[in-house]
Design a protein that fits this description.
Number of domains of chain A: 1
Radius of gyration of chain B: 21 Å
Order of helices and strands of chain B: EHHEEEEHHEEEEEEEEEEEEEEEEEHHH
Number of strands of chain B: 22
Structural class of chain B: alpha/beta
Largest interface: A-B, 38 and 36 residues
Number of domains of chain B: 2
Oligomer: heterodimer
Strand content of chain B: 35-45%
Strand order of the largest sheet of chain B: 4-3-7-10-12-14-16-18-20-22
Number of helices of chain A: 11
Strand content of chain A: 25-35%
Chain lengths: 482, 420
Amino acid sequence: MAYTENELASDLENQEYKYGFVTNIESEQVPKGLTEETIRLISKKKEEPEWLLEYRLKAFEIWNNMVEPTWAHVHYDKPNFQDIIYYSAVKKKKYENWDDVEPEMKATMEKLGISMDEQKVLTGTNVAVDFVMDSVSVATSFKAKLAELGIIFCSFSDAVKEHSELIKKYMGTVVPVTDNFYAALNAAVFTDGSFCYIPKGVRCPMELSTYFRINEQGTGQFERTLVVADEGSYVSYLEGCTAPQRDENQLHAAVVELIALDNAEIKYSTVQNWYPGDKDGKGGIFNFVTKRGLCERNAKISWTQVETGSAVTWKYPSCILKGDNSVGEFYSVAVTNNYQQADTGTKMIHLGKNTKSTIISKGVSAGKSNNSYRGLVQIHKNAQNARNFSQCDSLLMSDECGAHTFPYIECKNSSAKIEHEATTSKIGEDQIFYCNQRGISTEKAISLIVNGYCKEVLNQLPMEFAVEAQKLLAISLEGSVG
Amino acid sequence: MEQVINTENNVDIVQPNGVNGILPIELKEKATALLSTLSFPTTKTEAWKYTRVGKISNKKFDIQKSQISSIKNYVIDPNGISIVFINGFYNASLSKLSDSINVSSLSEISEIEKNKIGKNIQLENEVFNTLNTLYTTDGAIIEIKANQNIHETIQIIHIITDNKTISNTRNLIISQKNSKASIIQAYFSENASETFTNVITEVIVKENAHLTIDKIQNESENCYQIATEQISQEQNSTFSINTFTINGGLVRNNVNINIEGQNCETNLNGIYILKGTQHVDNHTIIDHKVPNCNSNESYKGVMYDKSTAVFNGKVFVRKDAQKTNAFQNNANVLLSDDATVNSKPELEIYADDVKCSHGSTTGQLDEDAVFYLRARGISEKSARQLIVSAFIADIIAKIENENVKEYIFKNLNENYNFEL
């Protein structure tokens, strides 16, 4: 029996967001609203040094004078910044070891598929995790083992206390407070995040990972991630995110800064699966994130992202190729379904000589969603022999969705080579027919074709993530045959 | 963007010198009202991101009549019909009309007929369109009758002759059902600098009609020009526009095409070859509103010295415009480290059964190819010129009118020593 479109449609409606549960755990919150007082309170609760409070207050002042930008190709009701809880923390103090962790928390992590138990890891994956729930980091694994190599991997709050000189030196150097509206907001109210420092010449032996989870109602998540790879080092960093299923729109405004010093390499992979809202476009996370990396001489930064969640996504992981011979890469799969909207892409700023950048972006739009690629390739005057290749493909799965491409290409050097190409089309009926003929259902055929279409990007992910991402793609698109 | 209230209102850069705009009073009243609220675009205005209009906005331009003795140098097709405008005023003695076709100047037609003008021109937020509407001095009205195949080329020749002069010309071209015609729009300056040519051409291509416009811009490097073509295409029609920017200090081309009927074909081609401090901005919008249409766009540019080129092409495919094929290409060669190119090919697609693609490249001459030619005894200079000529050859090959082709060859050879 052929799989009919109606069957697909009903399957889609029954498809639940797998991570939509809420953990019942006591939490401590500050009152709603954003004033100088809120910021002082957050800073006090986190026992921060004076300089950080000043940094926050300055950012708050700057943010107050900024206007929310409207240039992105997305439509949403602007968040009411006075109606957000800016700090929500699990009551229990940080867990010193695994046995202290409450059963609810353990169950949550298990449901999310996060393994914190270092003993069990031997049989499974080899990943060190920093778990951030709402405003604070809950647990970090493998800390001791990494410390043997001199690698610092901890929550941002711990780093402020224990490694303040590094934080002071690098925080805000890649994404300054004045960068944009949401970066300024983040600088004022950020609550936690991850910090990672790889010393000179060290190759980090395991994947480092942060898992972000929004749990409480009415909260916003504002975390900061700072990864510093010192000369000649290497690190692969993963990021995952989920949130409960709710009718309200929750705001997630993060800042990620990567610094790759001479000859260093950072690989940053994201699987973003925030709650996307229901099939009528109600609820879901607003994901407004600023991600940027700085490459010194011979350094390399590679961004890989699989974006399937969020009601509205607005992010451009970028590379500033400052040093000669540095390399920037951006691999992205963005899938939107129902009423999701995504405006995502990258910026490659070529400043140094012989800098290279590659952009591979694959957009898939289904349902009534809108999916935009927006990218900037900028070759500065002194960037001799700069090289860029961009490919931005869009796949349309229904007649009510939209796929858009807005590339900006600016070149001021005559020795640069820039190529950009983009295509937009739907899955060919002949391709599906070919699969059907060989006994593959339409549903499976689509999954197969989309996976093949995204292969170039999925191949860039670490193995554990790639498997997860493939499943996620299949789920996100289930029943979206146009 | 929030509307910026222009307190100083220095938008009105035109000194009319007693000359009244020729368009219907209602249009002018609307334009006057709007002018007090508008401001000049800045680099923060998305559509003008890479083009500064300071050279235009900080000046005052006069409207003034003038006369020249001969247009010999400006006639591209000697056998064609020509309709000549000097500083935006129709010049009957220099024009050469024919009975085969209705060509007239705006100043010659009745008030009722003038109501055909301005139907598709947006004035809100468009300061240059508003200025043109308020101060239109004259323009060409061309109506190609139904079922006619016009063999003579129709030339609209715009010449600007005095320093600090503005020409606000407004043309209207209507291709009636089943007609076929080819038009040359040419822009020149004669011993003039710091002039501002602000031209709008409205084009309506009716059912089954075929229309080609070859647009040749050859004003001096001290002249500024904003040329807007607003096109509306009805079903089964074919429209092609070829834009050749040979010279000009600041040139902005707006080509806006609305495809309103099914089975249309639309072709846009362009070449810009720049030197000195020239700035050329090609801005195109193709709006596919209905199904089963094809559009092809290809712009190529070569930049010498300190010149700047901008390409911003946008293709819309509306929700119902299924089975649309839209292709867009922009290729640039930078021949100097002080030259800049900004390319922004955009696709905005709301229908799924479409084939759309775009490409943009920026690079330099292939050194292997230069070596290959030199190894065969061709001088380095010639080799480079040969490669540049080859780069633009495919666009030149698309020109149907031999006279246009010859004119472009001649000018490129003179300006850049090409051996075309």
